Amino acid sequence: MKRIFTFLLICTMFLSLVASSYAVDNNQQENELIIENTEELIEVIELSLKDAINYALEHNKDLTIQDLNIKKAEVSYENNIRIVKNYNRNKDLIDSLPTPADELVQQKLLELGATERSLDLSLNIAKWNKQIKENEIKYNVEKAYYDLLLAEEQMEIAKESLELAQDQYEKGKTMYEVGTISSQQLLEMELAVSQAQSGYDAAEMGYEMQKMSFNNTLGLPLDQKVVLTDEIEYKEHEEINLEKSIKEALENNGSLKVAKENYELAQLTLEATKARYPEITYKYREQEILVEQAAKSLDMAKNGVEMGVRSAYLQLITAEKQIKTYEKTVEKAQRALELAEISFELGQSTSTEVSQARLQLMDAKNNLAKQIHAYNMALLDFHYSTGLGKTQISTGY
């Protein structure tokens, strides 16, 4: 009886363990299914460069802040422009009345139109800053798009290198079996596969990191899967008239517009200061210094804008010339690899020479991709160098 009881106890424990194991396996399968379903729920988004820019502009909160800044500037403008309008309506009467000494400068500023121009400038800066913020967003998206395209291209090049190394290794195994290469050469080819795999893994990680950066720039979830529909390629730009581009930049640049207006307002303020303070006074000399400082700032702004256009142009032309050199290098490296493979199969070269030729080809392709990327960025920089700009204008003038 005791033996029967012991047997039943053992059977019960066994069945409990089986049930517990089944429950764990079942829960694990359910969890795996949930993870798989979650991954499937992440929709892949296809984006052209234009789509990416539009998405970023629609979802960027900085533009909302800029709109609020404009509204704030408009309120300030409306509150203060009343003083100007009141003066303009009653100018003859105000001028006929004696003006208190401490109001002479302000009245002269109203008379010269400096007060109204100062208010206009404040409002314009708020409006320009929104356009500049849009330029900044566009530029950042375009750069992020080109950066991700480059990372994708580098991953494809690394994949090609791995496939070539694997193909060479498979051929090497056949040659080893028939006795045309040594075991040492076969080991070297196997090592080349491992190195190519490491290179691909690094390129894949670089791509994933760049994709997160791209998503962050657009305001997408960091794990969002994206497919870029545009390709990294070299497109010839339109003919550039450098002097015309410089003139265009000097007319359009927002910071330069502000520097020019600040200089003219400083001159008007100096003229208004004369209404109360003689040239020998501290107040007058102080304003004279401000005029000279404004003139210096204007000259620096002009030189900065011109230098920006000229340097962007030089970078563009240099990058364009180098593309042709890198294209020829790829052609030469491709031919060198083909010859190395033929020589190896004929027993006239080693596996190391084949691996070196493969690596040189991959380096040449990577360098070409980087140069096309550099060209596209240089073209982008030149485009923005002739416009309003992409750096916010300070309101502390």
Automatic annotation (TrEMBL):
Signal peptide: 1-23
Coiled coil ranges: 316-343
Spans traversing the lipid bilayer: none
Subcellular location: Cell outer membrane
Annotated keywords: Cell outer membrane, Coiled coil, Membrane, Signal, Transmembrane, Transmembrane beta strand, Transport
GO MF entry, a single one: porin activity
Gene Ontology CC annotations of this record: cell outer membrane; efflux pump complex
Superkingdom as given in the UniProt entry: Bacteria
Cited InterPro entries: OMP_efflux, TolC-like
Main location: membrane
Pfam families: OEP
Family: Belongs to the outer membrane factor (OMF) (TC 1.B.17) family.
Protein name: Outer membrane efflux protein
Species this protein is from: Caldisalinibacter kiritimatiensis
Phylogenetic placement of the source organism: Bacteria, Bacillati, Bacillota, Tissierellia, Tissierellales
